[in-house]
Amino acid sequence: xxxxxxxxxxxxxxxxxxxxxxxxxxxxxxxxxxxxxxxxxxxxxxxxxxxxxxxxxxxxxxxxxxxxxxxxxxxxxxxxxxxxxxxxxxxxxxxxxxxxxxxxxxxxxxxxxxxxxxxxxxxxxxxxxxxxxxxxxxxxxxxxxxxxxxxxxxxxxxxxxxxxxxxxxxxxxxxxxxxxxxxxxxxxxxxxxxxxxxxxxxxxxxxxxxxxxxxxxxxxxxxxxxxxxxxxxxxxxxxxxxxxxxxxxxxxxxxxxxxxxxxxxxxxxxxxxxxxxxxxxxxx
Length: 284
Description:
By secondary structure, this protein is an alpha+beta fold. The protein has helices at residues 107-111, 126-129, 131-141, 146-160, 169-180, 190-193, 198-209, 213-229, 235-242, 247-258, 262-266, 269-283, and strands spanning 12-16, 19-23, 33-40, 45-50, 56-61, 68-69, 79-81, 88-93, 96-102, 123-124. The longest helix is centred in the C-terminal third of the chain and has 17 residues, at 213-229. The chain has a seven-stranded antiparallel β-sheet with strand order 1-2-3-9-5-7-10, with helices on both faces. A three-stranded antiparallel β-sheet has the order 4-8-6, with no helix packed on it. InterPro entries: AraC_XylS_family_regulators, Homeodomain-like_sf, HTH_AraC.
């Protein structure tokens, strides 16, 4: 066992067709970080667009092969993407990986960089963590157990955590309100809550979260809609539930962010796997 894992507590693991998904056992979470393991037993090729979302995304391949951005160099330590990355796709084969979703408020202390620095092309985790990223991946490759893999990730995060990185309390409060309101917060009212001008509020928020409050609200709402599209809810039901003006509004926004229609996404088994995995992670 690694990092104090108890033998009587095991990760939650489920099969979805050829895919196996796993999440850490209850009580083993890292504050500000959600972790999921994905394993494709079909051995097929995996290719998906990298999407914006309300978290810093990190994907670490647990095999000797490489997950890599298309039209870019191979990445060996782990792919890191910001809250609002440019349109890009990630590919791999016989995927066996760990994916982390890191809250922007936690990212500076764990990654050592501001979320605003991560909104360009996907980065290699080695560019941020150096040889620590290579060592973590090497140990993950040697380990098949989800329990031990999650322990390794938790151990690595604990070693990297730095208390010197601070986010303005006002920015943190605004971000939490946007998330708690699922993107349906009166953005124009936020600066007045903190006695800030709109210019200062927008500038500080973008510098520390990576996007403006308006863009953050749009991404939070889109992410929630995307998760619901992977369920049995109809597109019209999702649009009404999430707060889009109508089904056409949802259609345009999903198409803009994903290059696909909501109906296509809802019918894609990979999106069902993804939605189910993160629902498990948030319920753990």
